[in-house]
């Protein structure tokens, strides 16, 4: 193994005189002016042999992983410690670890893109770490240092940049996640955790470009309810969704559209995406009510629409209202938004045995424009007026 | 390591001539009459050195594990295979394993008791494996062979019988669980699983005998909702419950009482137990509505009450009805039921800032009789008219 230490000084952003007062392993307690800081360096252990890279033209989602991963541990009383980039490897955990029994875990999903000029960039990554901490709050998991985690991610992506596929629409999927590792069968928050980041090269979500999908409105199963964990990006929400997805996929539907868990009337999300409707020129999306995920793509779409001067509104929407708009001919477009597909046009919505064919089953004008603009920004092809992209390896 | 093979023929319960047609490793394909059977033997690898047993008088819950555990794997196309008892050891899993990201997992909890005569017995263990499969259905996990799993459990407990503590109220807690192990980041049921059973010696739930607890009615957080996973014993329900428990325990409450996720009016469960109320001589418990766990102790309590000729009814109960009964002086008793505490009397119920003191904060007559009878049956001290206990090592 090649051992290499990369010194990373998170909290040092002034030119003031710095005194190191304690230094052991990769933790440094320092003073800067009148502040005392704990500075951690990320230890890097590079893999001796590298795996063969896959063919970028034939990539699936989430089956191939890169040569390295990031890890950091947490222990009550000690906080987060031992940040390290190591060869991608199996985890060794006690069978009584809380993650296996009580699902105390949160995760995020984002991507690294390569531009035509060969630059590596991320799309609003700070939003993902902000949301990770929001999820942590709901799951009783200690906060992470968002800035430190982002720097760790950038360092990992920089090491793995040759893994970013260059084919049209491909990217490097990034999965940060935290798991509760204490071996304890009592139902209580863990006193030990692991924060990890793993990377997976992924193909274009739509192999033949953006393409409308068929969605079934779910009337039986519920993904989340107000007071539950719907707003958190946590395992249990996805476990709860598996059955509904299994049932509808047998009938050729790509995803389900989730209604609220209380009245089963109001629209929440579609599959693992947020959802938008264009009715009579106005673009509407369900308001964040506490059981809907605060999508980064959702927020970007709202900002873009406003930037273009288009009317966009966040409010409660009943499924019946969508059906009425369809009947009256004012339902012009529908689309999902998420990291995986970016924009996923909905060509058909099936509710109570009735098929609503939207925009003749074709991709709508707004859906297309949003897709082109967002992917354009992500791949550095169009101007980024919002400062959403973050370069990797440039600092 | 001492290698030992224990041959276990699950499906052979006739004296007919048996022909072995295929035999490789520990899988045997056999014919019996006109049936073809797949018979698996449990491979046993005993630990070379045994851990020191803890002091039975000072046992906590779920922190100490025995010398061995049971494991069995599943692969799509192959089914469940390679059942084995091995030394208790860490699990090695890919960081992309579905359990870490989408919480596809189910579990059970039961106990082994030692009688005064030194016999080892289980309490209705077949109900736990039946419920495990019920949970599997909701979580899209393949069924296990309930009878085979029970035999594996009995074999494991037989090997570990010296770990069963003998002090009053102590027992060996048994945790069967299944985790999704396929390394895949797509949201879909795993194609690989592990079924495991681990054992932990546990102390009496109430160190000073049965003792009433203070319970807070939860108005903000929701554990489960109809259409969700509330009826399944799965990680996400417990992850969702952590925050509410953290909040109320700061105010000295032992547990929360969960209301329904839709109207937040109707009583569902208390903490991780089912709940019963005695009002004006009648014993009432929430009906199984799809979001309440089908407790084995709950079912045993209902059967016992009926056996005693006491009126017991399963129906929807509003929290307001409990408060009204309290005001009118007809709320006579309240108690939770579960494997851990068996019967947990509720001495105080706090709802919307109001304290309902039940039976002067003392253990009620029915609660006491149920506790004595159920624990009496479990420890072989009183007659078992229902045939609930299952002996280990007697066959």
Automatic annotation (TrEMBL), chains A, B:
Where does the source fall among the domains of life?
Answer: Bacteria
Molecular function as annotated in GO: L-isoleucine-2-oxoglutarate transaminase activity; L-leucine-2-oxoglutarate transaminase activity; L-valine-2-oxoglutarate transaminase activity
In the Enzyme Commission scheme, what number(s) does this protein have? 2.6.1.42
Reaction(s) catalysed by this chain, per the record, are: L-isoleucine + 2-oxoglutarate = (S)-3-methyl-2-oxopentanoate + L-glutamate; L-leucine + 2-oxoglutarate = 4-methyl-2-oxopentanoate + L-glutamate; L-valine + 2-oxoglutarate = 3-methyl-2-oxobutanoate + L-glutamate
Keyword Ion transport in the entry? The reply is no
The record's family statement is: Belongs to the class-IV pyridoxal-phosphate-dependent aminotransferase family.
Q: Which GO terms describe its biological process?
A: isoleucine biosynthetic process; L-leucine biosynthetic process; L-valine biosynthetic process
Matching Pfam families, A to Z? Aminotran_4
| Pathway annotation from the record | Amino-acid biosynthesis; L-isoleucine biosynthesis; L-isoleucine from 2-oxobutanoate: step 4/4; Amino-acid biosynthesis; L-valine biosynthesis; L-valine from pyruvate: step 4/4; Amino-acid biosynthesis; L-leucine biosynthesis; L-leucine from 3-methyl-2-oxobutanoate: step 4/4
Which cofactors does the annotated protein need, by name? pyridoxal 5'-phosphate
Q: What is this protein called?
A: Branched-chain-amino-acid aminotransferase
UniProt enzyme class:
transferase
- The entry's keywords: Amino-acid biosynthesis, Aminotransferase, Branched-chain amino acid biosynthesis, Pyridoxal phosphate, Transferase
Q: Which residues carry this modification: N6-(pyridoxal phosphate)lysine?
A: 233
